[in-house]
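Anyone up for a design puzzle?
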């Protein structure tokens, strides 16, 4: 049964052309001091609703050759030097295909949202792949896309109601440095108006 301060990793997977699989990873901590005793099914349903809300902002901008396939939800604990999956809560099927009909940008090109914590050196970045040529002018995101990403950023910082007063709160689950093994609440977020790039996200190189 979920308990106060449990940590979760949420992975959303994309199928890109040329057999490339991309993913976004979110970290959350459960706040349930009362407690209201949510079940695993409650956690899964709450995360499903939040991922669906993210996709409502994102999917219109994805190229029509890109599909967001599913989300995987795991409870994790720090084990010496890595976050270990100790319980798999389940998967959430999406099968949402993008609706932008212009050509997909290169695999590594992505829109970027950066979230910050109270620790200057601890932050989270989300690289959203699969965008299309029609989403930008040169390297600059269209204003409407910037607006949707800003809404996504605000949603990312908003606690996810699970049941009663129990909520999931967005966190940075640190993996290295002085804060390795710790979690830090996200307190602010910003989008980049310029397209970002992940060198590893290309055919034949990682995911």
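Challenge accepted. My sequence:
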């Amino acid at each position: 049964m979920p308990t106060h301060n449990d940590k979760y990793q949420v992975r959303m997977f994309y199928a890109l052309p040329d057999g490339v699989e991309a993913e976004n990873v979110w970290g959350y901590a459960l706040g349930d001091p009362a407690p209201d005793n949510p079940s695993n099914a409650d956690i899964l349903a709450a995360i499903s609703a939040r991922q669906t809300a993210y996709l409502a902002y994102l999917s219109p901008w994805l190229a029509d050759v890109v599909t967001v396939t599913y989300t995987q939800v795991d409870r994790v604990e720090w084990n010496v030097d890595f976050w270990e999956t100790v319980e798999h809560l389940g998967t959430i099927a999406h099968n949402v295909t993008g609706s932008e009909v212009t050509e997909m940008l290169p695999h590594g090109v992505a829109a970027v949202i950066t979230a910050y914590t109270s620790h200057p050196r601890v932050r989270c970045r989300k690289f959203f792949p699969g965008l299309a040529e029609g989403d930008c002018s040169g390297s600059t995101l269209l204003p409407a896309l910037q607006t949707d990403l800003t809404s996504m950023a605000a949603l990312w910082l908003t606690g996810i109601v699970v049941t009663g007063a129990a909520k999931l709160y967005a966190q940075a689950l640190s993996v290295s440095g002085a804060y390795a093994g710790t979690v830090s609440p996200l307190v602010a977020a910003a989008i980049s108006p310029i397209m970002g790039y992940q060198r590893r996200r290309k055919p034949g190189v990682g995911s």
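A detail worth pointing out: The two ends are 32 Å apart (CA to CA).
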